[in-house]
Amino acid sequence: MSNILKAILNIYRCPIYNTRNHYKSNNRANSMGDALELFVKDSFSNSYELSEEDAIKAHAKTFSYLGNQNNPPDAILKASDAIEVKKIESSSSELALNSSYPKSKLHRDSPMLTASCRGCDGGKWEQKDIIYAVGVINKETIKQLCFVYGEDYAATREIYENLRAQIKKGVLEIPDIEFAETRELGRVNRIDPLGITYLRMRGMWHIQNPFHTFNYIYEFNKEATFNFLAIINEKKYASFPKEDRNRLEEEAGIKIVEKNIKNPNNPALLKKVKVITFSR
After folding, report:
1. Is residue 191 part of a domain?
2. Which of 33, 87, 134, 154 is the most exposed place for a label (fewest CB within 10 A)?
3. Cα 57 to the chain's mean position, in Å?
4. Which is it for the CA torsion 140, 142, 148, 149, positive or negative?
5. Helix extents (H) in 92-214
6. Are 201 and 171 in contact (CB under 8 A)?
7. Are strands 105-107 and 227-233 parallel, antiparallel or unpaired?
8. End-to-end alpha-carbon separation of the chain, Å?
9. What pairs with residue 155 in β-bridges?
10. Residue 152 falls within a domain, yes or no?
11. What is the distance between the alpha carbons of residues 265 and 261, in angstroms, rounded to a whole number?
């Protein structure tokens, strides 16, 4: 089975950073967002150089679910982690998550998931670790790429759900309104005397990008054409097969150091992580 360590090694050994030209020439992508998503998926299935037909087969062997633009996640590795891909224009840009708040884990009971997503891997899962793959794109080329697990990046869902509940409570305290439950924050019906106007309340979530969030443990090489960063907590890193860890650790051009990061749920507590980097 594929995993994040194999993907990192594939990116290091088979870099195709001018993604738009590469995937457009293979008729596999029209936009840079599509190209970045394909690049990340190809990293896990080692299918950069394959034709569209063969890449589809490789993805089918690697993933149990491939998503769409409106429902997270973008992919799920067979019996393993979920992946969410995000494109930004610069290392100072924020990530636009739209109506979906940041995820420390992917929960099967999330209303944002499709039935196909819930049913992947036989439907025998309640939560999955989720990898955020964030790429900085400049002139159709990936300049920086980061892999970070949600549990090392975002707070638990209770933090965000509590805010949603407080907003709902505040709206309900407004006299003479008709509040309706939706997948969004809510909806207020029959606002006008005729009862024909309604108000939709949507959350537009943003989060600081990981290059900024983790700048206290990582500084990218400004002279390089490509920089890679991965942050994996110690427990997760130890869960991967020893042979995969050895291959990554023995690759001379890849740097792996131990660092401490702030716990997303309590910054007073520190978490031990592996910080994996390389540049070109």
Report:
1. no
2. 33
3. 23
4. positive
5. 115-119, 157-172, 210-213
6. yes
7. unpaired
8. 28
9. none
10. yes
11. 12
Q: Using one digit for the tens of pLDDT, what is the confidence trace for 163-200?
A: 888 888 888 788 888 888 787 788 899 988 889 999 88
| 3-state SS class at 145 | strand
In the chain, the number of structural domains is 1
> Cβ neighbours of residue 60 under 8 Å, at least 6 residues apart?
none
**Residue 140 Cα distances to 17, 32, 51, 169, 273, angstroms:** 9, 6, 21, 45, 31
- Containing structural domain, residue 222: 4-156+204-279
Q: Is the pTM of this model over 0.85?
A: yes
- Whether 161 is covered by a domain: the verdict is no
| Average pLDDT score over the chain | 91
State the sign of the Cα–Cα–Cα–Cα dihedral 236, 239, 241, 245. positive
Residue 60's CB is within 10 A of a number of other CB atoms, namely 12
Distance CA 16, CA 141 (A): 9
Contact 278, 226 (CB under 8 A): no
In a domain, 182, yes or no: no
pLDDT in tens, 112-167: 899 999 999 999 999 999 999 999 998 778 999 999 999 999 999 999 999 888 88
Note the pLDDT of residue 64.
98
Residue in this structure with the two tokens 């020439």, named with its chain if needed: 25
H or E element in which residue 32 lies = helix 32-45
